[in-house]
Amino acid sequence: MSAINAVIGNLTLLDLSLPGTHDSLTYDLSTTISDGGIDDYPELSKVLHLFSGSVDVIPGQIEDFIRQQARTQGMTITEQLDNGVRFVDFRTMKEKDDWYSLHMLQSNEKSVTYLKEIRDWLDAHPGEVVVLWMSKHGNGGAVGDEAYPGVSVNDKRAFWGQVEEVFSGLMLDTSVSKVNETTIDEMVSRGHRCVVYAGDYAEFTGSSRFALDGALVDNRLGSSVDDEEASYASEVDLFANAAASKREDKRSQKLLLRSMATSSPDFQIEAVAFMKFDPFASEDEQIKKCTDGFGIPSLNSWCPPTLMDVAQMGAYYKQITLDLAYNNFEEGWEFPNAIYLDSLDYDGRIRTGTTLPWGTVKEDDVEEHRLDNYPYADTLIGFNVKMACRMGGGDEGVCETLLDMIEGRRKAGGVISRWEDGKYGRSTDWPV
């Protein structure tokens, strides 16, 4: 985003909209159940308990199944940053020997390894600012044992000490800079380029001046693709009214965040598990339960087998409201301070087609749309330029040049793409 610093430099962080990813580190999950566990996924726990003693289950199969229902990203954290991400959903939990990232399963590497990757990227990109939202499960307002069950204050503070060590000289110092007053240019010149919103702020950081309270993240959740009509309505409502919400939040350094993430609904997990592990299950019955649960008119004979399949189907519909908000800028629509979602693709796009980044071609899909995607990052970057230019951040010539460049990138890979696929849940006229 430093490429547009010429116009956004006089804006504060809370005047911008940052492209983010949900569960940013799940590309690197192991097959080890996290000490954070799967307590938040009761249906998955029930299904896995049912099949865990089956003689038909090969060792490691259940753990791999969990990983398929937990992975939301296919790109490394360095690749995500390279492709425009500036808001990182950094989940972490104390395991037996150290802190690891998690989403049901713990990561292959320790959390500090991913922090060092982010530090290396910031060192290589001296004009960039990155926001880290640190928590166990995306609940910035949780404190104490609710935030990090069974983890002592000493262990929390020891890990925070590692965070401060990794980002030494780059962290926002809240005694000097305020995200609602300090401009981007000032943050960069002061070396305040790593902004951390930390859940369980008092216990986790010791009320450190190098972090903001995670409770200041105004996280607006919405429905997922299993209730897409409600999801569409809530996204339209938020984008149409984001300007007023951001003004209110900015007064107290709150960051307005919108989740456009997906999750594996219980009915999908159960159906896929029965088809995978129960040799007597009726595939037709399980697929019908699954497709009925999603309620998408064009999803008729396929149950998404992985969370990434669900995410890409969700991204197909998220592109509609993202493009609507971008094109209604002159009517007062705005994006929140950050969005986080799944299935990031190269060039900062989100994949809306049917083929997974590491997957094989699906049977009977629409061939020309297998790899379709939407210009997520450039849409938010373009919005930031529009906002900055409206606020007097650049002369007319500079603004036009930047917008032409960004619009060229948006169109080069295709903007919004809709097609009819009666098997894999893509529709040209639903929900609108």
Automatic annotation (TrEMBL):
Gene3D superfamilies: Phosphatidylinositol (PI) phosphodiesterase (3.20.20.190)
GO biological process entries: lipid metabolic process
Pfam families, per database record: PI-PLC_X
GO molecular function: phosphoric diester hydrolase activity
Domain of life: Eukaryota
PANTHER family to which the protein is assigned, alphabetical: PTHR13593, SI:DKEY-266F7.9 (PTHR13593:SF113)
Name under which the protein is recorded: PLC-like phosphodiesterase
Origin species: Triparma retinervis
